[in-house]
Design a protein that fits this description.
By secondary structure, this protein is mostly helical. It has 2 domains: about 45 residues, no CATH class; about 70 residues, Up-down Bundle (AhpD-like), CATH 1.20.1290. The protein is built from 7 helices and no strands. The longest helix is centred in the C-terminal third of the chain and has 19 residues. About 25% of the residues are buried.
């Protein structure tokens, strides 16, 4: 493991997904999933998200499209929250969700808006 890349990835992962979410994952590491969690943090977050060719905001919007197309609602919710953390406005997110509906199909768009509304309602309620 490249410790510097892992540390960079852990920092970015925490900035995007929030300290609570990352700590929950780190605190639930077992011998079985340890290498996987290290790999995700080092390669996905340190290597890919750590590449400064794209802003985090742009990466968030790309992820939302991919996760909606792949029908991964749990990850979509996590990355929708991350997109807000990365400075995406509600208008930008609405526009991306509309594009998801057109390119991925209405069911994907409906699910994306459903998840987004729940997240936004939770945030507004202070949850």
């Amino acid at each position: 493991m490249d410790k510097a890349l892992y540390d960079k990835g852990l920092s970015i992962r925490t900035q995007v997904l929030g300290e609570d979410y990352v700590n929950q994952n780190i605190n639930n590491i077992t011998d079985f999933n340890r290498h996987f969690q290290e790999m995700v943090t080092e390669y996905a977050w340190g290597g890919v998200w750590g590449d400064e060719a794209l802003e985090k905001k742009t990466r968030s919007l790309i992820n939302l499209g991919m996760l909606a197309a792949l029908n991964r609602p749990r990850e979509f919710e996590i990355h929708f929250r991350g997109a807000l953390n990365n400075g995406c406005s509600k208008e930008e997110l609405r526009t991306v969700l509309e594009q998801i509906a057109i390119y991925c199909g209405m069911p994907a768009g409906i699910e994306a808006f459903r998840i987004a509304r729940r997240v936004l309602d939770e945030i507004e309620a202070g949850a």
